[in-house]
User: Fold this.
Amino acid sequence: MQYPHRRNRDGSVDSICPRCIATIASSTREADLKCPETAHVCEPWRLAYFEVENSLVTWFSRSVRDNRASA
Ligand SMILES: [Zn+2]
Assistant:
């Protein structure tokens, strides 16, 4: 699975799980995110929550827009 990366103002990069919207890991080096991404397992309660909310697409498009605005 591909995990989108979100760059923060302080230069660190968050790895976000697109299924459960958890922040898997945060690091100043994107290469360091690979290992926790591989080990990530979605938490069932998160999946259930976001399926009900159906907010995945909304959340993501909003997040991308915020990123561009702050860049
Ligand atoms: Zn997940």
About this structure: The CA atoms of residues 32 and 46 lie 24 Å apart.
